[in-house]
Amino acid sequence: MNKKKRSTSYEVGDLVRITIPKIDRSSIDHPTLSCKVLEIIKNNQYVLGSKFGIINMHYSPGEIEPLDTIDFSELNNLPSNKISVKEAAHLQSTGLVTEAICNCKSNCNNNKCYCKKVGQNCGSRCHSDHPCQNKCEN
């Protein structure tokens, strides 16, 4: 069995990846999150930032893998807000298709529909056969 050796230490500015625990992601979310090392604190713990914000927990070197690239433009300008891994995992996946997924059982004609509430049209991953009044008409 070939296992990748993980680095025992990282520097500020290094591009890394963390595994998102299954409990913090849904079946459509990516299993990893790309991050940048922002700070090294005592006990060899790392503060990481993603394109959605600063992850609100610290990571040890064993929980981090190097990202196999030198430049990753999404991580150049990071927002300063704090965010949980669960929120980042959800934003990472839903951001690829649409900014929101509503899973409505009704016709999406009021603010109970998350997509309508945030001002977006329902996408193809929101719901399948339910009637929808919030879809973009082509």
Output the number of helix runs.
2
Mean pLDDT: 81
Order of helices and strands: EEEEEEHH
Gyration radius, rounded: 18 Å
Number of strand segments: 6
Largest sheet: 6 strands, mixed
What structural class do helix, strand and pairing data support? alpha+beta
- Coarse morphology: elongated
Distance between the termini: 51 Å
Residue windows where pLDDT falls under 50 for at least 5 positions: none
Strand content range: 15-25%
Report strand order across the widest sheet: 5-1-2-3-4-6
What percent of the residues sit in helical stretches (DSSP H or I)? Answer: 10-25%
Outline the secondary-structure elements.
Layout: E1 15-19, E2 32-41, E3 45-50, E4 53-59, E5 64-66, E6 82-83, H1 85-97, H2 114-117
Parallel strand pairs: 4-6
Antiparallel strand pairs: 1-2, 1-5, 2-3, 3-4
Write a structural description.
This is KRAB-A domain-containing protein 2-like. It is a single chain. The protein has 138 residues and is of the alpha+beta class. 12% of the residues lie in helices and 24% in strands. The protein is built from two helices and six strands; from the N terminus they run ββββββαα. The protein has helices at 85-97, 114-117, and strands at 15-19, 32-41, 45-50, 53-59, 64-66, 82-83. A six-stranded mixed sheet has the order 5-1-2-3-4-6. β3 and β4 (53-59) form a beta hairpin. The protein is elongated. It starts with 14 loop residues before the first strand and ends in a 21-residue tail after the last helix. The mean pLDDT is 81.
